[in-house]
Amino acid sequence: MLSKQYKEMLSQKSVIRDMFYFATERIKTHGAENVFDYSIGNPSVPVPEAYNKKIEELLENPDFTSIHGYSPNLGILSVREKIAAYLKKTYDVPYEAEHIFMTSGAASAICHAIRCVVEAGEEVVVFAPYFPEYRPYIELAGGIMRVVEPDTKAFQIHFDKLEEVLNEKTAAVIVNSPSNPSGVVFSDATLKKLAAFLMEKQKQYGHEIFIISDEPYREIVFDGKTVPYVSKYYDNTLSCYSFSKSLSVPGDRIGYLAANPSCAGAELIASMCGQISRGLGHNCPTAFIQQAIGDLIGTTADLSVYETNMNLLYDAFTSLGCECIRPDGTFYLFPKAPEPDARAFCDKAKYANLIFVPGDSFGCAGYFRVAFCKDTKTVERSIPVLRNFMRETYGI
After folding, report:
1. Phi, psi for residue 139 in degrees, rounded to 5
2. Distance between CA 176 and CA 174 in Å, rounded?
3. Together in a domain, 89 and 185
4. What gap in Å lies between CA 193 and CA 186, rounded to an integer?
5. How far apart (Å, rounded) are the C-alpha atoms in residues 110 and 271?
6. Dihedral of the alpha carbons of 198, 203, 204, 208, in degrees to the nearest 10
7. Whether 375 and 267 share a structural domain
8. Distance between alpha carbon 215 and the CA centroid of its chain, in Å?
9. CATH number of 66's domain
10. How far from chain centre, in Å, is Cα 33?
11. Mind listing the pLDDT tens digit for each residue in 29-77?
């Protein structure tokens, strides 16, 4: 018999992927130069040359088993040591290799983190707007997702709503800063208030409440801003990172989970993740890619194009009357649609060859996401198309 749970999920496919597939088909009939696909966050800048050189160096290694063989289940020790050393130096948090678990990107890290700290029937709190895939990550682990309504004035945490949602069943809270989809960075004041709030609730309920910090965009920031490191504010934090955005290597599927050395069970988390992998069939990312990033911790691709694109599109949308909070980072813009139903807006826009994702699936109806990880010339060419669409459809 086929699994009922997964059959039901077929009717709840990712809206992001659906729009991406529409764009793919649209390109076949209208040409790639005429379709402006802002649906999916696929990094567009070249990888650093140092990464390519490292790949070449590894391929020339005659010891093929060290490159193409199995790695240890928790990841290659020397790579875990380098990650711990980088985090310790950069954020002044005393990580050691034992606190690091290698994963196939941030998604895998989050899935492992949830299973580490959430029992079946317990709750995980997310802040709208949130990455839609949090729901299957949580629910397929047996957890229950609870959503805090968005503060649409600033997209910081709506603490009055958090007070209503968090309860004795809460096992974890997911923080995503900079945020997909809003691009907002949670401020120092926000994180201090969140940490104090959760510490008080831990005392009240008599059990740990973990923060699972989703951090794949922490190097992509604008206007000279920096991203506060969540583990500096709250001991019970599991940091989930991906090199997909910083090195522009999403297809290489490489990241890690870092357990704050002061969190409950810090010495057990990585090893528990190894056991979780047995059930997920994860069994660590490839040895080849682990070694490729090992000497490049802290290196990034040239990410400046994202700020250029953000400025172009932010100015375009706001000049057309769309309310929009200026992103602090990421490669996303999250404007308010010119009509109440963002799904209807995106459906109209896609037939004008402008592919956006409605915010409903992010828990924020009336808004839409624009993934501007494109070359700047494409962004520039899309703006007259956008202006024409808004004029013809909405009289703007």
Report:
1. -70, -35
2. 7
3. yes
4. 11
5. 15
6. 60
7. no
8. 6
9. 3.40.640.10
10. 28
11. 999 999 999 998 889 899 999 999 999 999 888 777 888 888 999 999 9
CA separation for the pair 355, 15 (Å, rounded): 12
365 touches 342 (CB < 8 A): yes
Query: Which residues make Cβ contacts (< 8 Å) with residue 343, sequence separation at least 6?
Result: 358, 360
Tokens of 285: 């990312």
96, two tokens: 């050691």
Q: Which residue has 């080849």 as its token pair?
A: 288
Task: Kindly state whether residue 53 falls inside one of the protein's structural domains.
Answer: no
pLDDT in tens, 191-231: 999 999 999 999 999 999 999 999 999 999 999 999 999 99
SS3 for 290? helix
Q: Are residues 91 and 11 in the same domain?
A: no
Nearest to 215 by CA among 94, 324, 121, 91: 91
Question: Do residues 248 and 352 both lie within one domain?
Answer: no
Check residue 264 and give left, alpha or beta (phi > 0: left; psi -120 to 50: alpha): beta
Strands 237-242 and 255-259: antiparallel
Q: Are the beta carbons of 182 and 327 closer than 8 angstroms?
A: yes
Total residue length of the chain = 396
